[in-house]
Write a structure and sequence with these properties.
2 helices; mainly alpha; 83% helix; rod-shaped
């Protein structure tokens, strides 16, 4: 069955009974198959949306953790530089 025909039929632009499909049972079967496909697509979109939300949350947490680690690293670097300066001062005075 042609997709364009089905789309037109579902949107009300075409008669649901064409010369190619005069059997209402065949049409019903095709419509049920399309409905099942649509249900699977909706489930997939829901699953992917939830996965996307979870990944964005994880990304935000990791970015916050990274910012904290960078701040700690900067503090440690400053302390080491200060210690080196004190050691040099002691070396020059001693």
């Amino acid at each position: 069955m042609q997709r364009a025909y089905l789309a037109g039929c579902l949107q009300g632009r075409a008669s649901c009974y064409s010369p190619r499909m005069t059997n209402p049972d065949a049409f019903k079967t095709e419509l049920e198959a399309l409905s099942a496909t649509l249900d699977r697509l909706v489930d997939t979109v829901r699953r992917l949306s939830e996965e996307n939300r979870s990944l964005r949350h994880s990304q935000e947490q990791l970015a916050n953790e990274r910012a904290g680690l960078m701040a700690r690293n900067e503090q440690a670097r400053s302390r080491v530089e200060a210690m080196i300066q004190r050691l040099k001062a002691l070396e020059n005075t001693g």
